[in-house]
Structures are given as C-alpha cells and as structure tokens.
Amino acid sequence: MEIREAEKRAAELRAVIEKHNHNYYDLDSPTIEDDEYDALMRELRGIEQQFPELAVPDSPTHRVGGTVSSSFEKVAHTVQMGSLQDVFSEDEVRGFLSSVMEQGAHEFTVEPKIDGLSVSLEYENGVFTRGSTRGDGFVGEDITANLKTIRSIPLKLNEAPEFIEVRGEVYMPRRSFAKLCEEQERLGEPMPKNPRNAAAGSLRQKDSSVTAKRKLDIFVFNLQQLRGKELSSHSESLEYMQSLGFTVIPDYRVVHTADEVIERIREIGEMRRSLPFDIDGAVVKVNDFAMRNEIGFTTKVPKWAVAFKYPPEEKETTLNEIEINVGRTGALTPVAVFDPVQLAGTTVSRAILHNQDIISDKDIRVGDRIVVRKAGDIIPEVVRSVSHREGSEPYFIPNVCPICGAEALRDEDEAVIRCQNIDCPAQLARSIEHFASRNAMNIEGLGEAIVQQLLDNKFVANVADLYELDVQTVMQVTGGMKSAENLINSIENSKKASLDRLVFALGIRGIGQRAAKLLCEKFGSMEAIMEALPLEICSIDGFGDIMADSVYNAMQEPHRIKLIERLKNHGVNMTYDSGKVSDELAGKTFVLTGTLPTLTRDQAKKLIEERGGKCSGSVSKKTTYVLAGEEAGSKLTKAQELGVKIISEQEFRNMIGE
User: Fold this and answer.
1) Is residue 286 part of a domain?
2) Lowest mean per-residue pLDDT among 48-57, 133-142, 429-438
C-alpha cells in the first residue's frame, strides 16, 4: 500500500470508528457487531504501524471511545480508566507473554472479562461517596445515585482505609436481561440488543428507580487508588478488596507459565455458556505491581495486560419468512423465521429483526442464507446475510397493519412503523393487559388468557367496557362463580386508583409511571391534563418537547377523549390527591446526605414532598438546602464549595414546625 492510499484509508477508518464509538459508548446502540468493529481497529492499527507518520494524536487507537453525557455531571478521573489491548489468537497471547517474561515477569493472573459497563467507585473513610462511568478514560459521568441501587455495591466498607478507589464492571445478569426483553416485548417497546447495552442504558437513567428495577450487578476487578495501606500484587489486591466487602471478579487464577495461561483461557472459554452473566473474553495480567511499573503503558493501554476475545458461536441457516407482530403501541415488529439451529445449548428458529433500518442495512431478504447467534447467549439475532436466493428482492415492512388492515406509518423521530388504528385488535389485547397491570389500575385476575377470551367472545371492545361487566358474563370465561366475583370486585376497586395510575394505564407513548405522577402533580386533574398545551407540559422538570407533544397529541385523539369520558361516567377517579400537607416548601429543592439522627431518607423525603418541596440526588447551584447527617460525603463538600445552605435534622424539623 502506498502512503497516499494508506493516508486516505486511515482517515476513512478513523471516521467510521468514531461514529461506531459514539453509537456504542454514548448511545448504547451499536450498529455493527463486535468482531466487525475489532477488524476495523486492527486494520487502522496495522496502517499506523506500517506508516508511523500517519499515527495522529487523536486516532481512535490512542484513546478510549465515549464522551460525557450532558445529563450527568462530569468527573475527572485521577487515575486514568484505560482499556486493554485485544488479542484474538493463542499465538498472540504467547507473543505477549514472551515479551513481558523477557522483562522479568514470572507470575500472571487470568480472569474472565465481564461484558458490561466499566465504573469507578470511591470511598472516603469507608463510605461510598461517588461512582462514575469510564467516559473517555479521563473524564466520566457521575452516576452515584444509580449505582447505589445495585445491592452488591457496599455503601460502607469493613475496616476501611482512609481512601480507596476501585474499578468494576456493571452487568445485567442473563436472567434479568431475559425478563427485561420479555417485558419490553409485551409492552410493544424496543428491546435492548444485548445485556451490555441494557446495563449501560439502565445506568444512564435520569430516574434511579428505573435503574433499580433492572436488577444490575457488579464485579470489582481493579484497585485504582489506595491510601493507608500498601499492596504488592493484583491477586493480593483482589483478596483485600473482597475482605472490605466487594464482590470481586470470580474464577481468577494465579499461574506461572505460558502453557498454564493458555490452559486457563481455554477453561474459561468452556465454562462461559454455563455462567449466569456474559463474558466476551479472558484477561491476562502481570500480577506483580512493581513489575507492572517497569513494563509501563502506551498512551491507551497497559503493556502488562491483554484481553483475549472469544469468537461468538454462529450458525448458518435459511430465512423462510418474515412475520410481522403488532405490539400494544401499534409498533409493527418484523420477526425472522428460519430453519432451526442449535445455539448455546437450545434450538432456535426465530429472531426479532427490530426495524426496517436494520433489515435494509443488512440487506436481509426472504430466502437468504443467514448467520444467526444469541445476543448474551439468550436472545437470537440475525448477524448478517450470506447470500441471496436467485430472483429475491429487498424486503420492506408493509405499510398496512397485518391484523386490521389499517394504514401503518413510520414515526418521524423513530425507526418504528406503527398501525394508526387505536382500535386495532392486536393493540387492544395488549392495551387492556397494560391497563390492568399491577403498576397501572392493578386489576387482579385480568391476565392475558382472560383478556383474550373476553375479546374473542366480544364481551369487551376497549378498557371502558370492563366497567360494564357483571358476574354472570365473567363466569363464562373464568368458569367459576368465586373467580368471577373476585374479578368484578377488583375491577370495581380500581375505580379508586390514584390518577397517576390511570394516566399511566392509558398507554401514552413515552409516559411511564414517574412521568405520569409528574403530570398529575403539575395539573391535578384529568380535565386539566387534557386542556394543557405543549408549552405548559414541557415546563415540567424532566419533560422535553417529544414527551410534551406525545401527551398533547394523545389527549386530542378523538378515541381517547371518548374513552376518558366513558371512564369518568363509570366512576373512575379523575382527580389527583398528592398527599400534600401544605405548600410551605414549594419551590425549594433539598439534597439529603449522610445518616440522620431519627429519620430515614425515605421519611425525610416524604416530609419534604408532602409540603410541596422537591428532592434531588445531586448538589447544584439550584439546590436550596442540603439536609446533612453523620458521615456526609462528597455532597456536603460540594455544598460548601457552592455556598449552598447546610441544615441539620433539627433545623429541618423547626422549618416545618415539628
């Protein structure tokens, strides 16, 4: 390759890789497979090695992908959170070992490489004070509130040093991932591509209660900083961190020869399918800290460690057809139906294709020979098309709903195509199930099977019809008097549900439980919500233009207006009781930190919100008061830096007249 050709190709590769870095690290939505990305990086690295003059300082080969989201405060890492050099063959591992052994290394650790999101955890005098993402390796995002929802992260350490910073990998267990996918599919919402993306998206939620529901976990795998104690090796640091209360990386082993390293890599590879979490490789590290310092670093990676990447299990098969499923929100979801293949120990014959963009980008056609695998060894996915059948044509999702025949249109701001008929039978079944769900109107006994029978027998045509059912009618689908009575009683009790539950139950796109509650707190009644203009809705903290337009458009839709009127006539509650005692704290924002003498944080938060105040998870210039108790951490320090007023529990009680 001539230098001009190399320069042009290197520029192309950098642009493509930066785009994929943005999709992967910042949007949690990769558009190519890991092995394709690795191939691009290897090609660029090869060009820069052949032509060193082309190795520009800002090349992707010299830094970690990812930028800081504006949704979170920035955190500058005192110790860089770098990445590892990837290798893809045993020969490359032996080459690495030969190099470090020549420099004096004789002891190594081999451990699983967890496929998740790398985070830093900081502790002052044993108290968890701050957690952050890796970001670009130098600056990350403060996600302390979300990390505190992960139960395996200790909030207080045993016999702790003065200060310690550790690095861990947050992941979503396979069971949690499967449950999330099942729930998203049931709600007709986009499903995460794999557990790693699901974990990353969960950690970047503005509402930490959403993160808590995702059941994330963590393994700590590296000591970043330590004051008050000296350690000499990686294995010693893992033992020490475990003694403090951390869940450290499992199945690590100390070995001494190249053959032992390779044998351990193979053993981890054999066990990966049986693990309850995803791994995408094995990490080999020089164990001795002093030897690491001698071996040193490049600008991006340490020279004393490599990550061996396992190839994904893939199978080739024939795509027989593409089915279209219709979800609760009217989304038309394409599903690939192919000849059965064995993947990760089970037989699979179907895989969701997600949307038209993915189908077009991969040029997937009916009759193709395709390659499939399991994302996270759980969810089948089509990786690529190998070859087209003679005479095949590009596939396009139909512009009519396959269930009701109504027009289906692509959303302006999404890749989703939706049925425009709110009374579509496919949407109706899922809408009723959602309406009756625990977090909505909580109608016990109204599950999927009963809903379908009610629809099949034409006993209901929308959710308002539920309130016209009687015991004799319900008995025809439940088969018993007692179960019918229980269901009718549950339907009757649902009329008393809080208004925010009803708003959530209506299934407005983009409006979850928290957003529904905020709407009700702002407007107080269904009538006021229906009359609200987008600008008024957008003024709610946490709402943007898209959410505001979604609410406004939903409340102008004739079918929904008629439905709400019928629900009102049936006696369903249409006003919101916030439980507020007064408005004496209205307009004031509190941040809670440390351990209060008599109140739990939930109790203090309730007292604040009952009086019209607001609680926030982080200190800023907009904070009115920091309510601090014992062992208050970085929030107290930041409040002092910003000049925010700090109050004790007693001062708070005096403020509210207790």
Assistant:
1) yes
2) 48-57
Task: Using a cut of 0.70, tell me whether the model's pTM lies above it.
Answer: no
First-residue to last-residue Cα distance in the chain: 79
Q: Are residues 205 and 211 in contact, defined by beta-carbon separation less than 8 angstroms?
A: yes
Looking from the CA of 151 toward its CB, the CA atoms found within 13 Å total: 4
Distance (Å, whole) CA 276 – CA 176: 10
The answer to whether 559 and 593 are in contact (CB under 8 A) is no
Q: Are 332 and 325 in contact (CB under 8 A)?
A: yes
CA distance 49 to 15: 18
Same domain, 597 and 525: no
H or E segment and range at residue 534:
helix 534-538
Of the candidates 113, 193, 374, 638, the residue annotated as catalytic is: 113
CA of residue 582 relative to chain centroid, distance? 37
Residue of 215, 220, 64 lying closest to 128 (CA atoms)? 220
User: Residue 434: phi, psi to the nearest 5?
Assistant: -65, -45
| Coil/strand/helix, residue 373 | strand
Residue 527 lies in a domain: yes
Whole-angstrom Cα distance, residue 646 to residue 611? Answer: 19
At residue 489, what are phi and psi to the nearest 5 degrees?
Answer: -65, -40
- Tell me the pLDDT tens digit for each residue of 463-482: 999 999 999 999 999 888 99
Summary mean pLDDT of the chain: 88
Strand partners, 254: 109
Q: Which of 290, 309, 328 is a domain's end point? A: 309
CB 164 within 8 A of CB 216: no
DSSP notation for 324-345:
EEE-TT-BEEEEEEEEEEEETT
- Cβ-count burial of 288 within 10 angstroms (0-12 exposed, 13-18 middle, 19+ buried)? buried
Q: Tell whether 291 is covered by a domain.
A: yes
- What pairing do the DSSP bridges indicate for beta strands 369-375 and 315-326? antiparallel
Question: Residue 580 CA to chain centroid, in angstroms?
Answer: 33
Q: Within its chain, how far is the Cα of 538 from the centroid? A: 25
Same domain, 504 and 603: no
Q: Is 155 found in the same domain as 135? A: yes
- Establish how many alpha carbons lie within 13 A of residue 182's alpha carbon, considering only the half-sphere containing its beta carbon: 8
Among candidate residues 187, 81, 224, the one with its CA nearest the CA of residue 433: 187
Please say whether the beta carbons of 134 and 66 come within 8 A.
Answer: yes
For helices 471-478 and 481-493, angle between their N-to-C axes, nearest 10 degrees: 120
Instruction: For residue 88, give both structure tokens.
Output: 């893809």
Residue 593 · residue 632 · CB < 8 Å? yes
Closest CA to 272 of 112, 118, 116: 112
Q: Is residue 577 part of a domain?
A: no
The count of domains in the chain is 5
pLDDT in tens, 622-644: 899 999 988 777 788 888 888 99
Tell me, yes or no, if 113 is annotated catalytic: yes
Give the domain extent around 517: 425-569
CA distance 466 to 442: 13
Residue 556 identity (one-letter amino acid): Q
**114 contacts 277 by C-beta, under 8 angstroms:** yes
Residues 250 and 109: their CA atoms lie apart, in Å, by 12
Please, which residues have CB within 8 angstroms of residue 240's CB and are 6 or more apart in sequence? Answer: 223, 229, 231
Region 267-273 average pLDDT: 89
